[in-house]
Amino acid sequence: MKQYHVKVFSKKVIAGIPWTLVAATCAVLLFRAVCDEIGVFTSVFNVLKGLGISELLFALIFPFIVGFVSALPTTAIPLTFPLVLPMLSEMNTPIAVSLVYSCGVAGYLLSPLHMCLLLTNSYYKAELTKTYRYWVPTVLITLLGGILSIFLINWLS
Predict the structure, then answer these.
(1) Can you tell me the distance from the alpha carbon of 26 to that of 21, in angstroms, rounded to the nearest whole number?
(2) pLDDT for 120 beyond 90
(3) Which long-range contacts (CB under 8 A, 24 or more apart) does 153-157 make?
(4) How far apart are CA 69 and CA 92, in angstroms?
(5) How far is the C-alpha of 35 from the C-alpha of 139, rounded, in Å?
(6) What does DSSP assign to residue 86?
(7) What single DSSP character describes residue 132?
(8) Rounded distance, CA 9 to CA 104, Å?
(9) Interval 38-91: pLDDT, tens
């Protein structure tokens, strides 16, 4: 077995840390702290109530849109959770998290910028529109089934 000197080992460990992910995580935490401090979430809730928009509907659509636009669940989830989860405070926490997460991932899966979709279509020379004919109903049925099962679990408990 090869032995490493402490200096070499520490350099390899530091080189292996995904610094962009660390920076992004810190930025999301800072974003949430600033928003909490200045009362952004309360203002958004009040605007939504004033417009007559259902908090549950917003909690389902907003993560979907962010997931669709960003095409990254690692972006959609940390950006939408701090805003949407307080809206669902009367709901069971695991149920609320499941709903928000499911909608964010569904948006990500349907995004034309989703790398797996792009690479698969490129490799197999498939047309995106033909792929979407099969892909969209599958994702939406899966999302609907997930949402219905989440509500069923909430109703039964």
Answers:
(1) 9
(2) no
(3) 153/95, 154/91, 154/92, 154/95, 157/92
(4) 28
(5) 32
(6) G
(7) H
(8) 38
(9) 877 677 777 877 888 888 888 888 889 888 888 887 778 888 888 888 888 888
Which residue is it, tokens 């909430």?
154
> Contact 46/87 with Cβ under 8 angstroms?
no
Which residues are CB-contacts of 4 (< 8 A; sequence separation ≥ 6)?
12
Scanning 4-54, the segments in alpha helix (DSSP H) are 6-16, 19-38, 40-51
Prediction pTM value = 0.69
Tokens 């995106």: give the residue. Answer: 128
Give the largest CA-CA distance in the chain.
67
CB 63 within 8 A of CB 76: yes
Residue 1 is predicted with a pLDDT of 60
Residue appearing with tokens 């979907």: 64
